[in-house]
């Protein structure tokens, strides 16, 4: 399992210190590593070239609809939105995407 983020490596390191997520992932990848944000098809090309993931068999979860749409455009078959990524705010409409309420639900299943 790979975590991909648009966060810069430095802020990713800080987040991982605060939230113990790193043990759940084989790799942590910042879009900055490739020079393209997750919204760009160039990002997905670079990710596939480096990791050889199979979009038809992959699950991608994100809290940003344009990023989910970019993944869908690339061919990622299984997409899931997070409707309440910020516990301080109410849930948001995830439009055409199925959703979980927040990341804590996902962590319980890992």
Automatic annotation (TrEMBL):
Sorted UniProt keywords: Hydrolase
**UniProt cross-references to SUPFAM superfamilies, sorted A to Z:** HAD-like (SSF56784)
Q: Name one GO molecular function term.
A: hydrolase activity
InterPro entries assigned to the protein according to its UniProt record, in alphabetical order: HAD-like_sf, HAD-SF_hydro_IA, HAD_sf
In terms of superkingdom, the source organism counts as: Bacteria
Q: Which NCBIfam families match?
A: HAD-SF-IA-v3
Protein name per Swiss-Prot or TrEMBL: HAD family hydrolase
Q: What is the species listed in this Swiss-Prot or TrEMBL entry?
A: Pseudomonas caricapapayae
């Amino acid at each position: 399992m790979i975590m991909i983020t648009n966060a810069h490596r430095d802020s990713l390191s800080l987040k991982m210190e605060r939230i113990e997520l790193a043990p759940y992932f084989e790799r942590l990848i910042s879009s900055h590593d490739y020079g393209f944000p997750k919204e760009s098809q160039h990002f997905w090309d670079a990710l596939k070239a480096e990791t050889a993931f199979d979009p038809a068999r992959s699950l991608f979860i994100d809290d940003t609809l344009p990023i989910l749409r970019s993944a869908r455009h690339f061919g990622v078959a299984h997409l899931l939105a997070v409707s309440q990524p910020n516990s301080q705010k109410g849930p948001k409409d995830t439009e055409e995407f199925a959703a979980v309420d927040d990341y804590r639900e996902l962590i319980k299943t890992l």
